[in-house]
Amino acid sequence: MRALVARLRASAWLGLQIESNWTDPFLFTAYAITHPLATALILAGMYWAVSGTAHGADTFRGLYLGSAFHNYVVMVLVGMGWMIVEEREEFETLKYVYTSPIGMFNYLAGRSLVKRPDNEHLYNLGYEFKNRGYDVAFLYGGRGYFDNMNAFFSGNGYGIIDQTDMKSSEITFKNAWGVSDEDLYRKTMKEADAAYGRGRHFFYHVMTTSNHMPFTYPEGKIDIPSGTGRSGAVKYTDYALKEFISSAKKQKWFDDTVFIVVADHCAGSAGEVGLPVKKYHIPLFIYSPKNITPREIAKTSSQIDIAPTLLALLGFNYESHFWGNDILSDDFAGRALIGNYQKLGLYKDEKLVILSPRKKIDVMEKPLTQNQIAKGTAADPLSLEAMAYYQGADFILKHKMNRWEYAGRTDPVVARASHR
Length: 420
What we know:
Layout: H1 2-19, H2 25-51, H3 57-91, H4 93-96, H5 99-102, H6 105-109, H7 125-130, E1 135-140, H8 149-154, E2 159-161, H9 181-197, E3 202-207, H10 230-248, E4 259-262, E5 284-287, H11 306-313, E6 336-339, E7 344-348, E8 351-356, E9 360-365, E10 374-375, H12 381-398, H13 404-407, H14 412-417
Parallel strand pairs: 1-2, 1-3
Antiparallel strand pairs: 4-5, 6-7, 7-8, 8-9, 9-10
């Protein structure tokens, strides 16, 4: 119950900050209360003016209070609908938070598993590392109660470090989303040093928050003023990452560490025709200068491929339960799985098939350069492949075939060999 209350409080707090455009909470609360009351008063005055008759106190109370509280009800119902649309279409953070460590299910299911019940003990990337003795943790710059992330990651074998675990002396800047990227990276560095000092390898999933509205960050770090737009937030994100890598190079564990930098999503694609493939094109960097020769890989791939690619680079011998594949493998077949809260897509060989409610199938040829949709059929090979991906994921999810008990445990000899 305490965890539930804390999650509700954190979510309500963040919602208040977003809806109020980060203004003073007292002023916004006063506005939110008085606005419906004033609107109802205007309505009552208009009725009196039109009717041309006087009314008693009972009639006034019924008309005025009824209209005012009706506005509150409408605000709640409409606000809830818009919240769902914004979370899935504009912010999109929740849907993608789980694809990199888990490998497929959130990416394929079309809605977030993080908020669903019974979402613990899922097979994931951290599972493979933890079975080999690694220190596995999820580090988040905000409050992990938001979107139930703490419960989700902790239920799947990760240690949790978020804004609430940071001392005031460790926080130099924060906004509604959380602490600055620099603060989170410094905390990550401390955790990595501590794990190394204990003689343990580590796998840390670090999620930053600076590149979100209102796009505020510490002043004086870059040449774009804080809060002026996305371009500044992107540049600050790059600046903080550069500082983190520069500091990491001074650590004893740097030469034996692989850094993976990936986005969870691009800017929102609401209002676009079909599924705009270019809006799902995100960067992926794999960096380990002592072990990986720099090169560019121009293959169509998805976030579900990151985990198998990383484990292949590390030379892990394991039984894969990921639906992704090693991008660096010579026989890798390029394709991308994209989607939103209603549409599920498969992009392959410059062709996009879109599965929509009511068994609707659309096809887009060369969607990167053209914006035309044609009607597809269920007999088309690409349509069948798309249905196989999504229905297969749904079947596995419903029958709990993605749980730890299906994966089995790593041989103890292999686990011990992973210790330094």
